[in-house]
Amino acid sequence: MAKTYGVLIHGAGWVSTQHIAAFKNNPETRVLAVSDRALARAKQRVADFGLDAVCYSDLNAALKHPGVDMVAICTPQHVHCENVIAAANAGKHVLIEKPAGISRAELRRMLDAVRRAKVKSVVSFVLRWNPLFQMLKKMIADGALGRVYSVEADYLSHNGSWWSGWKDTCTQRNGVSAMLVAGCHAVDALRWFAAPGQFQAAEPVEVFAVSGGYRKGRRDDYDPLTNSWVKGTPPMEYDGLEIALVKFANGVIGKVSVNFDCIMPYRFPIRIFGDRGTVINNQVWSHKFPGQRNWVELPAIQPDSSDVSHHPFQAEVDHFVACVRRGVESHCNLADAVKTHEVVFAALECYRTKKPVRLRRA
């Protein structure tokens, strides 16, 4: 009989709803416990999903719950490090919401703990499982674009008080930067599309970035869900606009922009340029289509919503469980995710030094 893996969901906020649903739908897993700093919130999640699970307000107690094999870390980003280290030290496999940590030092400590415990990890760069992303990766691996030489991705979202996580991430101390809070999805997209292999992400070697925008420190806020403005909201303590150029080890050049200042609904544009074809979002121009006169539109789900329910958490969780079952590392494990985070931290260094930053090869 196949093993059933016990799951602990730690952090019962917005994104936890998708983790719970995905683990509940996976036939190899059972959610045994939910923990949160607010016990009432954990109990509400258990009730919402009709779970037969025990609730905790203390992670260390929850990690001792009988039968727990894996932990989904769904807490605010500034406590991920202590959460991941505790879970790894307890011998639990970890699925970590992005960003994994808020500093290079935190990431090193987390990675050391995961490696020492020999547990499996996945960092939730969930767009790697987006249907359009998967289709494009297959096309790149098949040579439909020839040799990719340039990639671009933009994270355009007026993140603000409409989002339940805003108070935890709008400060310099806990949020750090717009690119770290959410724009890291776009950075990871650059790495994903810059690599030729279907399950491979490129290694960044050099970064140059600038930041600006108008919104830093303001106490009025745009709500893209209602197309209205709100007064007296917590101010964002970092620049809302960041633009970075990234050079990869294989010679590909990437450009990423993160814009928390934009007055518009969420968008995630992508552009991929190869010597035999081009991709603009879901439109393809390729040597694989002889006599092509118009762009070919791929009928795949695009990354065009910030709602967590829009994203492919089921595919990500199924992948995580399969990695644990097979005893193999994920293409999106913590060691790989560190490389995405390095671009973010290099951008911050650029703002201080006004110089390009060379990254050490792994």
Structure characterization notes:
The chain is an alpha/beta fold and 362 residues long. It has 2 domains: 5-119, Rossmann fold (3-Layer(aba) Sandwich); 127-306 and 340-358, 2-Layer Sandwich (Dihydrodipicolinate Reductase, domain 2). 32% of the residues lie in helices and 24% in strands. It contains 10 helices and 17 strands. It has helices at 16-25, 39-49, 59-63, 80-89, 104-117, 131-141, 166-169, 178-194, 313-326, 334-353, and strands at 5-10, 29-35, 54-56, 68-73, 93-96, 121-123, 148-156, 204-212, 220-223, 228-231, 241-248, 253-259, 270-274, 277-280, 283-286, 296-297, 357-358. The strands form 3 sheets. It has a 9-stranded mixed β-sheet, covered by helices on one side. The longest helix is centred in the last third of the chain and has 20 residues, at 334-353. The radius of gyration is 20 Å and the shape is globular. The mean pLDDT is 96.
